[in-house]
Amino acid sequence: MTASRLFARHPRLHPRFLRLTLGISLAGMLTGCAVGPDFKTPSAPASSAYTEHGQPGRTVAADGIAQHYAIGRNIPADWWTVFHSSHLNQLIQQALTANPGIAAADAALRQAQEYVAAQKGYFYPTASIGYSLTRQQLAGNMGGNSPGLQGNGSVVSVTNNASPPYVKPIIYNWHTANLSVGYTPDVFGANSRQVESLQAQADAQQFQLEAARITLVSNLVAAALQEAALVEQVKAARQVVSDNRQALDIVKKQFATGYAMRMDVAAQESALAAAEAVLPPLDKQLEQTRDLIRVLVGKPQDQSVGPDFSMAEFSLPETLPLSLPADLVRQRPDVRVAEAQLHAASANVGVAIAARLPQFSINGIYGGEATEFGQMFQTGGPFWMLLGNVTQPVFDGGTLLHRKRAADQALVQAAAQYRATVLTALQNVADTLHAIRADADGLAAADRAEQAARVTRDLTRKQQESGYVSALVWLQAEQAWQQARMAQVQAQSQRLGDTAALYEALGGGWWQRPAVHKHP
How many CA atoms lie within 13 A of 432 on its CB side? Predict the structure, then answer.
């Protein structure tokens, strides 16, 4: 027979248990307001623009495209699709699924949510059922110190109807079953503030996850652009090396026939060596970039992530979104993390205040004892107790006071860190806007340099074919164009990267993604 069935067999238990439960419920109504400051969302920055010159205008036309801004336009959650690279889109989806950093951040969020749910359990009474069996022997010389009369009318006696010195010990079993109920009313809101603090920490972890996703995507976009640029630069660098080798062969032949000096040969050998020295760092950087892409996608280094990226597969969007500063603080995950940490610090002040106030608790117990299991709740076996307790800290060496002061300073620190995070966010957007403008100018200059070098190369080629200049002159023009092309590719990559950086600086559009994590 189980303890629960035992309780059910004895209806006299129920009125008493109901009275006990009613008393605990009434105690719960004593719960008052939570002490400490009530958190308020910080005011949005008063700034109306990101620069002292107002909102940015249209960039110069570079590579055939002039970018302009759409003030207040929302940012799509899949913002990377603006580059129109199917290969990039595929890798990002793989990364968001397989990257271990995202899995770790997701687990941290779920852990924080479970802590919130666990803390909410303290709002409810606790109940437990206990049962113990003791087998013991009483010394005969203890006289009448025995369990006595039992529910079935028997008497457990150690005298055994004998008189001293023939008193004998007795061995018997002792069964005890009980139901314990406890409740700690949240009179001053200590538990409410603790739940509030943990919920704020869970919110911070939620935004940490969003920040991890945005950072992962931004890093993968940057790596893809860098790989595309490096592929073009390596190709151009190899062509420059090839041109220098051909030029060296020509100079050597000229030296052999007396049309060039040894100094000319040495100069060309030096030019070849300089061109060859450019290639290994580019090769190293390209391979390391490919290694980085594998890590971001969550694959080991011996697996392929598809074909190399090329600059031709990326499109530069002409229209760029630009959120207002007042909206930025609600969009940036790092600002929302700082806000959640400020909220947690505010709630912790309430926890510290409540710790210095009276602590209330109510405990009740109902049970039965007997020498036989089935007699615990018969006549003489049941027992009950109801205990109310109030504890007021009187002296603790200043521990609780200094914890309260520490919580106050933590709140001051969190507020300062929040303001610093907001200023950094505004700076981040401003820096990106400056980079977009400057790199557009740089690309326009690189375009002009590449065009001029290409025209020079083409005209020199025609002159060489007509016999007006030597092949050496044409090779030099070819090298100059390849070098200009390398600079142009780098400028194109930087401009595309600036666009990605702007989407990241504006928050990455996480709020547009369907919510997948709910608070417990």
Answer: 22
Question: Which residues are within 8 A (CB) of 470 and not within 5 positions of it... i.e. 6 or more apart?
Answer: 250, 464
> Is residue 14 pLDDT above 50, yes or no?
no
Encode pLDDT of 386-398 as tens digits: 999 999 999 999 9
Return mean pLDDT, the chain: 89
- Other Cβ atoms less than 10 A from the Cβ of 174: the count is 16
Q: For domain 3-512, say whether CATH 3.40.720.10 is its number.
A: no
- List the beta strands (DSSP E) in 31-96: 68-71
Max Cα distance, the chain (Å): 143
Q: Is the per-residue pLDDT at 18 higher than 80?
A: no
Q: Using an 8 Å Cβ cutoff, are 316 and 63 in contact?
A: yes
What dihedral do alpha carbons 26, 29, 31, 33 form, nearest 10°?
-170
Q: Which alpha helices (DSSP H) does 305-398 contain, by range?
A: 325-331, 333-354
Instruction: Let me know: does 91 contact 313? Beta carbons within 8 Å.
Output: no
DSSP sequence for 99-147: -HHHHHHHHHHHHHHHHHHHHHGGGS-EEEEEEEEEEEEE-GGGTT-S-
pTM: 0.85
Tokens of 74: 């929302």
Q: Using an 8 Å Cβ cutoff, are 294 and 283 in contact?
A: no
